[in-house]
Design brief:
Helix content is 36%, strand content 22%. The protein has 242 residues and is α+β, with helices and mostly antiparallel strands. A 5-stranded antiparallel β-sheet has the order 1-5-4-3-2. It has a 5-stranded mixed β-sheet with strand order 8-10-9-11-12. A hairpin with a 4-residue loop joins strand 3 and strand 4. The N terminus is likely disordered.
Protein backbone atom coordinates (compact mmCIF):
# COMPACT_ATOMS: atom_id res chain seq x y z
CA UNK A 1 0.00 0.00 0.00
CA UNK A 2 1.56 3.24 -1.16
CA UNK A 3 0.81 5.25 1.97
CA UNK A 4 3.12 3.04 4.00
CA UNK A 5 5.93 3.74 1.56
CA UNK A 6 5.15 7.43 1.75
CA UNK A 7 5.30 7.55 5.51
CA UNK A 8 8.23 5.20 5.90
CA UNK A 9 7.61 4.85 9.65
CA UNK A 10 8.36 8.51 10.26
CA UNK A 11 6.32 11.53 11.33
CA UNK A 12 5.20 13.59 8.38
CA UNK A 13 4.47 17.30 8.67
CA UNK A 14 2.19 18.45 5.91
CA UNK A 15 2.23 21.82 4.24
CA UNK A 16 -0.05 24.49 5.65
CA UNK A 17 -1.82 24.62 2.31
CA UNK A 18 -3.76 21.46 3.16
CA UNK A 19 -7.29 22.57 3.98
CA UNK A 20 -8.29 21.54 7.50
CA UNK A 21 -11.85 20.62 8.37
CA UNK A 22 -13.62 21.50 11.58
CA UNK A 23 -13.37 18.14 13.36
CA UNK A 24 -10.61 15.51 13.62
CA UNK A 25 -12.36 12.93 11.45
CA UNK A 26 -12.77 15.36 8.55
CA UNK A 27 -9.29 16.85 8.98
CA UNK A 28 -7.57 13.48 9.00
CA UNK A 29 -9.60 12.21 6.04
CA UNK A 30 -8.75 15.35 4.10
CA UNK A 31 -5.05 14.78 4.67
CA UNK A 32 -5.07 11.10 3.81
CA UNK A 33 -7.14 11.47 0.66
CA UNK A 34 -4.77 14.23 -0.46
CA UNK A 35 -1.90 11.78 -0.08
CA UNK A 36 -3.79 8.86 -1.60
CA UNK A 37 -7.29 9.41 -3.04
CA UNK A 38 -8.25 5.72 -2.78
CA UNK A 39 -7.05 5.32 0.81
CA UNK A 40 -9.20 2.43 2.21
CA UNK A 41 -10.25 4.15 5.46
CA UNK A 42 -12.73 2.14 7.50
CA UNK A 43 -12.89 4.27 10.64
CA UNK A 44 -11.15 7.03 12.60
CA UNK A 45 -11.29 7.07 16.38
CA UNK A 46 -9.43 8.35 19.41
CA UNK A 47 -6.49 6.19 20.36
CA UNK A 48 -5.71 5.21 23.97
CA UNK A 49 -3.12 8.02 23.96
CA UNK A 50 -4.64 11.45 24.61
CA UNK A 51 -4.56 13.71 21.56
CA UNK A 52 -3.67 10.92 19.12
CA UNK A 53 -6.18 9.44 16.69
CA UNK A 54 -6.03 6.01 15.09
CA UNK A 55 -6.99 5.39 11.48
CA UNK A 56 -8.32 1.91 10.77
CA UNK A 57 -7.60 0.81 7.21
CA UNK A 58 -9.29 -2.03 5.40
CA UNK A 59 -7.36 -5.19 6.14
CA UNK A 60 -6.66 -4.27 9.75
CA UNK A 61 -3.71 -1.92 9.31
CA UNK A 62 -3.43 1.20 11.50
CA UNK A 63 -2.07 4.70 11.09
CA UNK A 64 -1.95 7.43 13.73
CA UNK A 65 -2.70 11.10 13.25
CA UNK A 66 -2.92 14.36 15.12
CA UNK A 67 -6.38 15.88 15.50
CA UNK A 68 -5.68 18.53 12.85
CA UNK A 69 -4.37 15.98 10.35
CA UNK A 70 -1.02 17.72 9.96
CA UNK A 71 1.00 14.90 11.52
CA UNK A 72 0.82 11.21 10.61
CA UNK A 73 2.70 8.28 12.01
CA UNK A 74 3.10 4.64 11.10
CA UNK A 75 4.39 2.40 13.85
CA UNK A 76 3.58 0.64 17.10
CA UNK A 77 1.91 2.30 20.08
CA UNK A 78 2.81 0.72 23.41
CA UNK A 79 1.23 1.13 26.82
CA UNK A 80 3.25 0.49 29.95
CA UNK A 81 0.87 -1.49 32.13
CA UNK A 82 1.43 -3.70 35.18
CA UNK A 83 5.15 -3.79 34.56
CA UNK A 84 4.88 -4.76 30.89
CA UNK A 85 4.90 -2.89 27.59
CA UNK A 86 1.69 -3.85 25.76
CA UNK A 87 1.68 -3.42 21.99
CA UNK A 88 -1.71 -1.77 21.46
CA UNK A 89 -1.18 -1.47 17.71
CA UNK A 90 -0.64 -5.18 17.30
CA UNK A 91 -3.73 -5.95 19.37
CA UNK A 92 -5.91 -3.69 17.24
CA UNK A 93 -4.45 -4.87 13.93
CA UNK A 94 -4.87 -8.52 14.90
CA UNK A 95 -8.57 -7.92 15.52
CA UNK A 96 -8.88 -6.36 12.06
CA UNK A 97 -7.01 -9.24 10.42
CA UNK A 98 -9.16 -11.82 12.22
CA UNK A 99 -12.28 -10.04 10.93
CA UNK A 100 -11.03 -10.25 7.34
CA UNK A 101 -9.89 -13.88 7.60
CA UNK A 102 -13.07 -15.05 9.33
CA UNK A 103 -15.09 -13.54 6.47
CA UNK A 104 -13.53 -16.00 3.97
CA UNK A 105 -15.99 -18.84 3.29
CA UNK A 106 -14.59 -22.27 4.10
CA UNK A 107 -15.73 -23.30 0.63
CA UNK A 108 -13.09 -20.97 -0.83
CA UNK A 109 -10.22 -22.60 1.10
CA UNK A 110 -8.35 -25.89 0.86
CA UNK A 111 -8.86 -27.40 4.29
CA UNK A 112 -7.05 -30.25 6.04
CA UNK A 113 -8.93 -31.24 9.18
CA UNK A 114 -8.09 -33.59 12.06
CA UNK A 115 -10.06 -36.83 12.39
CA UNK A 116 -11.33 -35.65 15.75
CA UNK A 117 -12.95 -32.21 16.25
CA UNK A 118 -10.31 -29.49 15.83
CA UNK A 119 -8.93 -27.79 18.94
CA UNK A 120 -7.82 -24.74 16.95
CA UNK A 121 -7.21 -23.66 13.37
CA UNK A 122 -4.63 -21.74 11.38
CA UNK A 123 -5.04 -19.99 8.03
CA UNK A 124 -1.99 -20.27 5.79
CA UNK A 125 -1.26 -18.01 2.82
CA UNK A 126 0.60 -20.39 0.53
CA UNK A 127 2.38 -20.66 -2.80
CA UNK A 128 2.88 -24.11 -4.32
CA UNK A 129 6.30 -23.07 -5.67
CA UNK A 130 7.57 -22.03 -2.21
CA UNK A 131 10.08 -24.42 -0.62
CA UNK A 132 9.15 -23.60 2.95
CA UNK A 133 5.46 -23.92 2.05
CA UNK A 134 6.23 -27.42 0.83
CA UNK A 135 8.07 -28.16 4.08
CA UNK A 136 5.14 -26.88 6.14
CA UNK A 137 2.73 -28.96 4.09
CA UNK A 138 4.72 -32.10 4.84
CA UNK A 139 3.95 -31.44 8.52
CA UNK A 140 0.20 -30.95 8.07
CA UNK A 141 -0.49 -34.54 9.24
CA UNK A 142 1.39 -33.79 12.47
CA UNK A 143 -0.54 -30.53 12.92
CA UNK A 144 -3.78 -32.47 12.40
CA UNK A 145 -2.62 -35.09 14.92
CA UNK A 146 -2.18 -32.28 17.45
CA UNK A 147 -5.72 -31.07 16.80
CA UNK A 148 -4.95 -28.18 14.45
CA UNK A 149 -7.05 -27.61 11.34
CA UNK A 150 -5.04 -26.15 8.46
CA UNK A 151 -6.91 -23.79 6.13
CA UNK A 152 -5.05 -22.79 2.97
CA UNK A 153 -5.61 -19.57 1.05
CA UNK A 154 -3.70 -18.58 -2.07
CA UNK A 155 -0.80 -16.16 -2.29
CA UNK A 156 1.14 -16.45 -5.58
CA UNK A 157 4.32 -14.55 -4.68
CA UNK A 158 5.23 -13.73 -8.27
CA UNK A 159 1.82 -12.22 -8.96
CA UNK A 160 -1.12 -12.83 -11.24
CA UNK A 161 -0.25 -14.88 -14.31
CA UNK A 162 2.89 -16.44 -12.81
CA UNK A 163 3.57 -20.18 -12.71
CA UNK A 164 2.65 -20.18 -9.03
CA UNK A 165 -0.62 -18.41 -9.79
CA UNK A 166 -1.55 -20.91 -12.52
CA UNK A 167 -0.65 -23.81 -10.24
CA UNK A 168 -2.82 -22.45 -7.45
CA UNK A 169 -5.72 -21.95 -9.87
CA UNK A 170 -5.35 -25.59 -10.92
CA UNK A 171 -5.48 -26.64 -7.26
CA UNK A 172 -8.60 -24.60 -6.54
CA UNK A 173 -10.29 -25.83 -9.72
CA UNK A 174 -9.49 -29.51 -9.15
CA UNK A 175 -12.28 -31.95 -8.25
CA UNK A 176 -10.23 -33.01 -5.21
CA UNK A 177 -8.49 -29.89 -3.91
CA UNK A 178 -6.68 -31.72 -1.11
CA UNK A 179 -5.17 -34.29 -3.47
CA UNK A 180 -4.22 -31.54 -5.91
CA UNK A 181 -2.54 -29.55 -3.13
CA UNK A 182 -0.62 -32.64 -2.03
CA UNK A 183 0.69 -33.17 -5.58
CA UNK A 184 1.55 -29.50 -6.09
CA UNK A 185 3.45 -29.35 -2.80
CA UNK A 186 5.49 -32.37 -3.97
CA UNK A 187 6.53 -30.37 -7.03
CA UNK A 188 4.36 -32.37 -9.40
CA UNK A 189 2.71 -30.67 -12.35
CA UNK A 190 -1.07 -30.55 -12.24
CA UNK A 191 -3.45 -30.77 -15.18
CA UNK A 192 -4.26 -27.20 -16.15
CA UNK A 193 -7.72 -26.26 -14.98
CA UNK A 194 -9.79 -23.10 -14.99
CA UNK A 195 -12.94 -22.14 -13.15
CA UNK A 196 -14.43 -19.31 -11.16
CA UNK A 197 -11.84 -19.18 -8.37
CA UNK A 198 -10.74 -16.92 -5.45
CA UNK A 199 -6.97 -16.99 -6.06
CA UNK A 200 -6.61 -13.36 -7.21
CA UNK A 201 -8.98 -12.15 -4.48
CA UNK A 202 -7.04 -13.99 -1.77
CA UNK A 203 -3.74 -12.66 -3.13
CA UNK A 204 -5.11 -9.12 -2.87
CA UNK A 205 -6.34 -9.79 0.67
CA UNK A 206 -2.92 -11.06 1.69
CA UNK A 207 -1.26 -7.90 0.43
CA UNK A 208 -3.85 -5.80 2.23
CA UNK A 209 -3.20 -7.39 5.63
CA UNK A 210 0.57 -7.23 5.28
CA UNK A 211 1.61 -10.59 3.83
CA UNK A 212 4.81 -10.19 1.82
CA UNK A 213 6.08 -13.76 1.67
CA UNK A 214 5.02 -17.36 2.16
CA UNK A 215 4.14 -19.25 4.16
CA UNK A 216 2.33 -16.62 6.21
CA UNK A 217 0.26 -18.08 9.03
CA UNK A 218 -2.70 -16.32 10.62
CA UNK A 219 -3.70 -17.53 14.05
CA UNK A 220 -7.32 -17.75 15.18
CA UNK A 221 -7.02 -14.39 16.97
CA UNK A 222 -5.60 -12.66 13.89
CA UNK A 223 -1.92 -12.70 14.88
CA UNK A 224 0.19 -12.94 11.72
CA UNK A 225 3.29 -15.16 11.84
CA UNK A 226 5.56 -14.76 8.81
CA UNK A 227 7.61 -17.72 7.68
CA UNK A 228 7.90 -21.41 8.44
CA UNK A 229 7.72 -22.80 11.95
CA UNK A 230 7.99 -26.49 12.94
CA UNK A 231 4.71 -28.26 13.64
CA UNK A 232 5.12 -28.56 17.44
CA UNK A 233 5.89 -24.85 17.81
CA UNK A 234 3.12 -23.82 15.40
CA UNK A 235 0.55 -26.07 17.09
CA UNK A 236 1.39 -24.63 20.50
CA UNK A 237 1.00 -21.07 19.20
CA UNK A 238 -2.34 -21.97 17.59
CA UNK A 239 -3.68 -23.48 20.79
CA UNK A 240 -2.65 -20.42 22.79
CA UNK A 241 -4.21 -17.94 20.38
CA UNK A 242 -7.53 -19.57 19.51
Amino acid sequence: MSVFRILGGAVLGLAASVALAADPDQSIRATLTTLQPDMPIEAISESPMTGLYQVHLKGGRLLYASADGQFLMQGNLYQYKNGDAVNLTRQAESKGVAKEINAIPISEMVVFSPKEPAKAHITVFTDTDCGYCQKLHSEVPELNRRGIEVRYVAFPRQGIGSHGYNSLVSVWCAKDRQAAMDKAKLGQDLPAATCDNPVAKQYELGQMIGVNGTPAVVMGNGDLIPGYQPAPQLAEAALQSK
